Amino acid sequence: MREDTEPGVGELLAIGAFARASRLSPKALRLYDELGLLPPARVDPVNGYRRYAPDQLERARLVAWLRRLGMPLARIREVCELAAGPAAEAVSAYWAQVEADTAARRELAAFLVGQLRKEDGNMTKTPAEGTRRRRSLGIRYAALSDTGLVRKSNQDTAYADDRLLAVADGFGGAGATAGAAAVEALRGLGSADDGAPHPGDVLNALEDAARRANRSVREVVADAGGCGHAAGAGGSGTDGSGTDGCGTGGCGTGGSGTDVAGTTLTAMLWTGSHLALVHVGDSRAYLLRGGELFQITHDHTHVQSLVDEGRLTPEEAESHPQRALLVRALDGRDTFEPEVGLHEARRGDRYLLCSDGLSAVVRSDAVRDVLGAVADPVRAVRELVALAHGAGAPDNVSCVVADVVTDEAADVPADAPADVPATA
Fold this sequence. Notes:
- The chain is α+β, with helices and mostly antiparallel strands.
- 38% of the residues lie in helices and 21% in strands.
- It has twelve helices and 14 strands.
- The strands form three sheets. Strands 5, 6, 7, 8, 9 and 12 form a six-stranded antiparallel sheet that branches. The chain has a five-stranded antiparallel sheet with strand order 4-14-13-10-11. Strands 1-3-2 form a three-stranded antiparallel sheet.
- Strand 2 (42-43) and strand 3 (50-52) form a beta hairpin.
- The chain is elongated and about 80 Å long.
- The termini are far apart.
């Protein structure tokens, strides 16, 4: 048998020749054999030599390509067991998640680069280079939560102070308590009086606080006797049904759906130079900058995952009957994984945090028009709630609007850009 060339039909390849043909190393092939991912066609019972069939090359090459994408071996095994069409969808879904994760880390990487360069500049700068006076930044804000026109109770929580901005959209019989508990777990961060901390420390503290919030929700769910089932079943229920359950008619555990409890959470913490973000669920955060409105959070919904995979268009998602079906929420589960990010503050920026009682019924261009035209945050949140009422307000509506404004004078390096605040 030829072991140094491409095989003929029906011939078996030794591991070296198969490795060259598949672009996988012999070491990798041995590992994939041990894992059951790519076992050889025959193993010599005497010397243990592995031999592979020519028709295994297609699978081996697919494994090699997927490894180049960085796909974990467990997921590669799943893809390899699928037919071509479903396998293509699985690869598309994986890559969409990679891109989403990369986007979430991009701003953090940019911040780290800028911070390190700034520290390097501070180490080499001499006092003789001087300083100038420039106004530092702060935020002014307003929060408003409204029951809407259909639901009997308000399960949303909207909160704002000079450090913390937060919106939580509870669901289920104990949804209001879950949302309030989640925000309360973060309020200690907003009351810190030790000045503006390092943004990197804030990100860690914010993620820790979100995990405490999840534990608080777990206690709420346990006290209410609920199942806490949100992923794959929970939803904020913007279908206009007027109920306060999970929005799906059942949690999949034999209950009626009203035993489900949990909450979304979208919150931002002011550091004095950045806004740190933590997010889970389908409440949203937007940034108005230069007249353009940008959504800076990613919806954790079943429908959004279909959009990410290319199986739905954004337009189709807006009217999809399961658009409120959550795949991630604060529900007390140990698998809870919040998204965190960091946004550099610029004078004139305006941030909006809202529940889906606004975003699901009011077009983004209408939201942009209000945010761009109404200067006072208090009036802006009232106008946004009024827009939701004009669209029928089938769900609770909560909004927080915060403006980045000049605050107080500070000594900063003479060559610092005018639109970038000093870090305390």
